Amino acid sequence: MAVGERAVGRFRELVDDDPREFRIHGAVYTDPEVFVAEMARIFERSWVYVGHDSELPAAGDYKTVVVGTQPLILTRHEDGEIYCLYNRCRHRGAVVCRQERGHSNFFRCRYHNWVYANNGDLIGMSQSTGYPDDFDRSGYGLVRAPALAAYRGLLFVRLAEQGPSLAEHLAPARRYIDWWLGRSPVEEVELVLPPHRYEYPGNWKLQVENGYDGYHGNYVHLSWQRVLQLSRESTVEEIQRYRQSGAARGLANGHGLLERPGSLNPNASWTARMMQRYPEYAEAMRGRFSEEQLVAISARRNIFIFPNLYLFDTHIRVIMPKAADRTEVQLYVYALKGVPEVINEGRFRGHERFYGPAGFGAPDDIEVFTEVQTGVHATGHGWNLLNRGQHRERIEEGEWVGHTTDEAPQRSLYRHWRRMMAEA
Ligand code: FES
Ligand SMILES: [Fe+2]
To answer: What pLDDT score was predicted for residue 8?
Structure first.
C-alpha cells in the first residue's frame, strides 16, 4: 500500500510540535487517507500486540487476529512453539481459519480442502492427482509473519521484514511492564477468557488518548465518584484529592502512562492494603521483592504500549482500528498468579463495576469518543490542543514528566505517530 510523497508531507503537518502550543489537526481522526496510511505505516510496520501466551496453553490452541489490514492466525504447534501465520490459503486465498479462537490440530480450507499443520506446513490436498508428481508441497505452506516475539508472556508481531527488535521497541516502558507484573509474587498473569469488547463510532487514537488522561476524570466520571460517596466507600473530595497525585509520563517510542504514587501504607495503596489483609500474600511479596521494589510495584498505572496495547490494573486492553471512525476494543481481564483467590475475585468485581458493559466508568468515556468524533468535523478552526502542562513538564531519564492532569503522554504518542507516518 504505497502512500504518495505529497501525502507523507501532509501527514507531518498534522502534528504541530510547537514548544508552547502542541496541537494536532482534526484530520488525524477523520481522514480515510490518514487511516489507510496508519495501517500501512504503523500497524503493518511496528511491533503490535497480538495476545498473551496464557491464551494458547496447549498444542493446537489458536486465535485469529487482524493486524492493520492483515488477517493472522496465532497458534501453538506440537513442537510447543507459537507460530504466527497469515490466514490466507495458498491456493486461492480464502481464510483457512474462520473462528476467533479454539483448538485444532490442523487448519482445513473449506473452499477446496487443502489442509495445513499448526506450523503452517501444507500437509494435505484433495484430489491431488490434479497436480504433477513433483509438486513440492513444502513451498506452499501458510506464510509466517516476519517476526513474532514475546516479552514476559506478552506476544507481539512485526509484519515488516526489517525494524527494531522487540526489546528495543519496549525498552522505554520495560520497567513499568515489570512493575505491572510484580503485583503477582510469581510475576505472572493469566487471562480470563473470553475478553469483553465494545465498538464505538470514533477513531482508535481517541481510546489511546483517554486511557492515560488524568484530566477528564473529575468531569466525565463525577457520577462514579458520587456513587462511591453514596456507598460510603470514599468521598468525592477524597477521590479528587487523590487524582491530583502522581504523574503523567510520555515515553520514547510512543509509549506513555498515568501513574498514582506507590506506598507501603495500606491506606494509600491497593497492594499495601492487600498485603495487610492477606499475610500469605505479604509474605510471598516480601520474599520476592525489596522494599524499594514494593513501593514501585504498588504505584497504580495505566500503561500504554504503542500502538495498540494498554496494561491496566484489572485488564489488558487491545485497541483494534477498523476505519477512521470505527474502533473495536477488547478487554482481557486477568488473574494475578500466586495470590489468594479472594484478591482476584475482588479485582474482577471491581473491573465489572467500572469497566464492564453496565459499569459506572468506561461507558461514559465511550460516549465522549463519539462526541469528539462528531465535533472534529467542524473545520472552522481545525486544530485540537494537546499543550496542557507543556510549560511545567520536565525531562527525567528520557521521559517527559508532567502533572497528573497534563498531556505529556499524548504528546509522546503523536511525536512517534508523526515519525512513523512521515519518515521514509
Ligand atoms: S482456496 Fe483454499 S483450498 Fe482452494
Ligand atoms: Fe475515563
So the answer is: 73
